[in-house]
Design brief:
about 150 residues; alpha/beta; Nucleotidyltransferase, domain 5; 5 helices
Length: about 150
């Protein structure tokens, strides 16, 4: 069975995400994590995006035997919405996903998801390290001693 899911923020600038999914394009359900989607072995889940916060839920689905796919190019949703005159909503996005060819989706593996999460953590720490180094260069010698332990720990 094919599941189609739209992942969207609950409010503007919010850290929480809501997942709306369907199998037929008529009955839509809402969940807060991928683990709550009733997909089983042999099922396939197609989604628009996979936020890093939901990596564990996607891994759980993979361990249950579900094939998980995410859209390679998000601009295709907008294009499909225009072509099929769909509203800009979770339901409209899901119907647009259903009209996109499967070749535009990338299948994910557990290794890919774990590696992606590690890369995101590394990028975040690298950015913090660079910011601290910039501040370090602007400080006097006495003030630099306070910042050295934080820089070395990163």
């Amino acid at each position: 069975m094919k599941f189609y899911a739209d992942v969207h923020r609950t409010k503007k600038n919010s850290e929480r995400f809501r997942i709306t999914y369907t199998t037929d394009g008529k009955a839509f359900r809402h969940v807060d994590s991928f683990g709550e989607i009733p997909a089983g072995p042999g099922d396939r889940l197609f989604m628009d995006t996979l936020p890093p916060q939901h990596t564990d839920g996607a891994i759980e689905l993979l361990r249950r035997g579900v094939e998980v796919y995410y859209l390679r190019r998000l601009t295709l949703i907008e294009k499909m919405r225009r072509e099929h005159k769909l509203p800009k909503s979770a339901r409209g996005d899901i119907k647009a996903l259903m009209n996109i060819e499967e070749g535009w989706f990338r299948r994910v593996t557990e290794d890919f998801l774990v590696l992606r999460r590690m890369i995101l953590a590394h990028r975040s720490l690298s950015k913090t390290h660079q910011q601290l180094m910039n501040k370090y260069r602007a400080l006097s010698e006495a003030e630099k001693e306070v910042l050295k332990p934080a820089i070395s720990s990163i």
